[in-house]
Amino acid sequence: MDCIFCKIAEGTIPSRKVYEDDHVLAFHDIQPQAPVHLLVIPKKHVASLDDASPEDLELLGRAMLAAKQVARDAGLTDSGYRVVTNIGPDAGQVVFHLHLHVMGGEKLAGLNPKNSSESDTRPS
Ligand code: AMP
Ligand code: ZN
């Protein structure tokens, strides 16, 4: 299968790894959209969250916990961060191997571009 993230998981395409275990890999996004922009992938090929099945339950949990860990290791825990997965064309998914974007290191724009003047709800 010609999947770039499977090749990264196999090690045949290089990546800047920040975390790896038997099931999950995390590495720097090659075109960061925030000061910290990491990707967490399951090593098993799952095209998107929409293709996940009940047998992937534990794997999805592992990926979420890895996202928390790499965010912590990157120093994002106190300032906050975003974990996003794009699914299909309207979300702009371009790599069809499930991945979690972990983004932070600055105040991130609101999720709704039509409402970009959202106030900061963090306690001062
Ligand atoms: P998505 O639009 O959710 O499918 O995001 C795919 C992400 O993968 C984009 O943010 C790309 O910059 C990133 N990406 C593509 N190829 C690589 C690569 N070889 N190494 C690291 N990140 C990559
Ligand atoms: Zn794949």
UniProtKB/TrEMBL annotation:
Motif (Histidine triad motif): 97-101
Record SUPFAM superfamilies: HIT-like (SSF54197)
InterPro entries: Histidine_triad_CS (IPR019808), Histidine_triad_HIT (IPR001310), HIT-like (IPR011146), HIT-like_sf (IPR036265)
Superkingdom of the organism of origin: Bacteria
Stretches assigned to coiled coil: none
All copies of domain HIT, residue ranges: 4-113
Catalytic center residues: H99 (tele-amp-histidine intermediate)
GO molecular function terms noted in the UniProt entry: catalytic activity
Name of protein: Histidine triad nucleotide-binding protein
